[in-house]
Amino acid sequence: MRDLFRFSRMWREPQELKDSYDVVIIGGGSHGLATAYYLAKNHGVTDICILEKNYIGAGASGRNTTILRSNYKTPEGARFYDQSVKLYEHLSQDLDFNLMFSQIGHLTLAHTDRAMFVMHERAEVNRLEGIDTKVVDAAQVQKMVPAMQVTEDAEYPIMGALYHPPGGIIRHDAVVWGYARGADRGGAEIHQGCEVTDIHTEGDRVTGVTVNGGKRINAGQVLSATAGWSSILSDMVGMELPITTHILQAFVTEPVKPILDKVIVSSQMHVYISQTDRGEFLIGSEIEPWTTYRMNGTLNFLQESTRHALELFPQLERTRMLRSWAGLCDLSPDYSPILGKTELEGFHVSTGWGTYGFKAAPIVGVTLAELIATGKTPDLIAPFAVERFYTDTLVSELGAAAVSH
Fold first, then answer.
1. CATH 2.60.40.2890 fits 2-63+173-243+333-400, yes or no
2. How far apart are CA 50 and CA 360, in angstroms?
3. Is the pTM for the entire model greater than 0.90?
């Protein structure tokens, strides 16, 4: 069983689980691994156990579409993701690992007068936060992406776009592997194939977890960083989180010659498109509207996303589809994350990310590490506390996350 979850020699083969750790992190994705890495790097906390029920990066971190950006609608969201993009810019050097990061620029297309108004509004929010974002017209869009069809007689004519130069793509698997190796070198133990079956409490604080096989592990602090499975873990401590879980799908084509060096997003067409370093066209859409834990792909997604992709890039008509996949996403009511402390002392969460948690991995790691090490919530994540749903201080990102990416 252990051999099934081994990966090369990038991190140590774990020993047997100890009876206790200072910090237990549930979830071996980018958020959990980044938190472990920055706990050691920034705060000297090394007695850490990372528990992953499958293999490292098996969840949302390995099933996303590699897009990074910070052009969000709210000041809280924009400044938060801006710090994440800035960390991503130097992450290859920090981890001593090639993450294949490329800031090629991000274009959010506008097809109506109302959409153009929204783009101007978002650009102004970004400008006030010092983020490089501006509105461009259709002629400028065509100049940036000459291979894309920009015509007035299209079903969805392109009137302009929100252009975000810092946006781009990064190899998601490499981010996971780099953080895993960094966390391992910092002293954290990585245990794959190790599922948490119970979380223990005494009074109003967390005391530890039990994993498959019945092993009890005591812990001073526990972090739940499991994307779509967060509600199941919160149920273990009698806590109800306001999130629902949906699937998100994507697919890639066979490799073709490079014709696209921007990330293209259309909220109205519900499609986003980029071209990988291998030449594949990576195409995705919105989450499926039903709540489910079944990661089955749907024909409807393939039909709709390919139809809209061809409206923008008709030259792909005979390009063959290579593979498709689905992943789990957890959504909060305001489309912003739930991050930090909970009512249970020592139990922290990173959840409610919808489809854009991967973009936030570095800053989530930095801020949660600071919270765990010092007990104080960093100002950057204070707006995303779960209490906002009871104090009516929501951080609505619906307008900037309508097509997920």
1. no
2. 19
3. yes
